[in-house]
Structure formats: C-alpha cells, structure tokens
Amino acid sequence: MIPFLHRSLSALDPFRQDLEAIHPALQLRVSARARRLALRLDPKGGAIHLVVPKRASMKRALEFARQYKDWIDRHAAALPPAIRFEDGATIPVLGQGRLIRVVFDPALKRTAITLNDDALIVHTNKDDPGARITRFLKALARTEIARLAREKAARIDRPIAEIQIRDTTSRWGSCSPDGTLSFSWRLVLAPYESLDYVVAHEVAHLIHLNHKPRFWALCEELSTDFSTGHDWMKKNAHSLMRYG
Ligand SMILES: [Zn+2]
User: I need a labelling partner for 194 at 20 to 30 A (CA). Which of 100, 140, 141, 224 fits?
Assistant: First the structure.
C-alpha cells in the first residue's frame, strides 16, 4: 500500500524530511529575494525558518542548518510553549476561537463536553481533563471530515473504502489505492478552508493517484476556497502540532 501524502507534492520533500530530522521546528522557506542562507525565528508560528535563496543548493542549505544545530536547539526550546487543553485557554475549533471552560465537580460520574459558538464547556470529575478534550476533538474531527469526504466523493461518484482519523506528525492526509482516506484529527484546529482543502485533496486522489495538473484542477474544484486553504496549510500547518 503506497500512501499518497499531500506533503510529498514537491521535489523539495526529501529535504523537508532531512530538515525535520535536524529539528521538527525547522521550516523551509525558499526565497526569491534572499541573498544568503539564514535562520529566522517565527515565534508566532512556533517555528524556525531556514531561508534559502531560490538558486542556492539544498545540500548546502542542509549543511548550514546542521552547522547551526546548537543555535536551532537553543532557540527552539525558547519558542512559545504548547497550548494546553485546559481552563482559560482559547483554541481554534472548526475555524473559530473557543474558550475552554472547565467546571470541576468530583460528584460527576463522567466528563461531559459541549461545544458552542465561542466556548468548549467541560464538566468533569478529572483533575486534568486534557485527554478527554483531545478525545472530544478527535470525535468532532471524524464527524466533520467524514461528512465533507462523503459529500465530495459523491460529487465525483467514487466510493470511499474507509475513513481513518489519526495523530500523525507530518501527514495531514493520505489516500491509499484501495480508497482508504486517512486524516490527522488536528485538522479540526485548522481554519475551515484548510480542513476542507485537505479533504478535497485526498478525495481528488480517489481519481488521480498523482499530483499532475489534472489532479490539482479536480482538487480545486472540490475545495470551497482552494487558495486560502492550501496556502494556510503550506505556511502554518506545523502550528497545529502546538496544541494538546
Ligand atoms: Zn496528495
């Protein structure tokens, strides 16, 4: 079974894996304006950018990053902390910021979670309901992704064998030749256009098992707002790893 991963779409992908091996917070930025190799902090995105001039050798860029590994390790450790699922934190859910409100009650038998327009309300007997919140978000991701995937697959008249929701670190979605679609539950924390785009991407693979122009045309047709969704994922998807 060969997974078709949407991160494998460019020739730069092998380098992304090498970068991730140096440090997971390292992100590649190929720049038409940059004159030299550089490392730049992106505290908001929780990332360190390796800026590579357009015509520079990627081999040289990787050597450069390895040479500055100490600097990268030190600065990566100082990046803003992960956003925990706890009382008072605001997390984006299906494209909208929601404040987590934890109501602790030791008399409760089980945790009950409700999502409304601006809050995620957690009635719980647990000291740390973080794992329960993650489970709730995974279930929500499954419902939303399955709905979108079935709707899009029906438009192209293709069956979906199975939909899997996983916690992968670098693959946001994949499609296997037998028609099984897999997605990261963390997409539920992405803007809605991005969630929609990743689903459209994997559904488009039900017809085209490649990233040729006809695939992209179908992917765009199946997306509600292709460029917004695609560009956000390209630039910010790594920030989804900061939650939980
Ligand atoms: Zn793909």
Answer: 100
